């Protein structure tokens, strides 16, 4: 089976990271995989392993040059499956079913006009699939397949030690990480207000550091907010990291305070895969996969005081941290491993090639 995967993103983020991990995992299953990415984007800087990767224009959502380039690549490669990710790549890809099956993969609640011409659709949450069906997409061609995460391989202690030393982290520091792009939906402002409350809590005797893993358009604004709240000395701006696993392994706690519009939140799955406890907000994606005080601690979106209290509680109660981390890991092993999810994709591919 030959597959072509197209994404038109300009910058790296969670969705783009998933695109590379998924296509690599699919290739490991002896599926022929080709990639098409945006020319001049940050995605061109990623090492592409042995997967043949093509740079395509993806100038706008309408431009004929991009449409022609995609059509020409499809005619050249003759894939059985073309899978597009998000709006831009999907809108620009038009193929006849006699040529191949076009699957649009959605990881968000996008405007649906750009997706209607695909032959089938995959949503990575149940909510997205319901959204598609409620808006007239045929139920028998809408498939729910969530994301997978890689189970962490422990890094050598000396590597972790060097990383801590590089960031100026002491052994007694409680390490909190927040992996997310600097965009509004990720809830950085709520996190910063919670950190401010922690920093000036005289009853809290433990030192702590917060590692921010990401970059994005809000960085200058967030730097100003951190300065205004007087929390600069508690924050480490680590930037975008290709090997985020090292930071998870350093962490005592993972905090993910996204707003309601967040769809899934790979960070929760990644934390569980590293056997780390999670404090998260009750955004719609988290509510599908988490249970309060069983595998995470939940607080309401935008509630910085509740977030502060939840973080403080986990800092104090080690037994609670261990309990929710253990249950999160069990859930990842049961539902979110690479083998389980990739096999589900392959089954959908086979079904669609036969049935439509």
What are its keywords?
alpha/beta; Rossmann fold; 13 helices
TL;DR?
Helices cover 41% and strands 17% of the residues. By secondary structure, the protein is of the alpha/beta class.
Q: What does this molecule look like?
A:
The chain has 13 helices and 13 strands. By secondary structure, the protein is of the alpha/beta class. It folds into 2 domains: 2-148 and 337-355, Rossmann fold; 157-335, Rossmann fold (3-Layer(aba) Sandwich), CATH 3.40.50. The strands form 2 sheets. It has a 7-stranded parallel sheet with strand order 3-2-1-4-5-6-7, with helices on both faces. Strand 11 (253-256), helix 9 (266-273) and strand 12 form a beta-alpha-beta unit. Helix 6 (188-199) crosses helix 11 and helix 9 (266-273) packs across helix 12 (318-335). The radius of gyration is 21 Å and the shape is elongated. The model has no long low-confidence stretch (mean pLDDT 96).
- Tally the structural domains: 2
Taking pLDDT < 50 over at least 5 consecutive residues as the criterion, the unreliable ranges are none
SSE order: EHEEHEHEEHEHEHEHEHEHEHEHHH
End-to-end separation in angstroms reads 16 Å
Q: What topology, given as strand order, has the largest sheet?
A: 3-2-1-4-5-6-7
**Main sheet record:** 7 strands, parallel
Computed over alpha carbons, the radius of gyration is 21 Å
The overall strand count is 13
User: Total helix count?
Assistant: 13
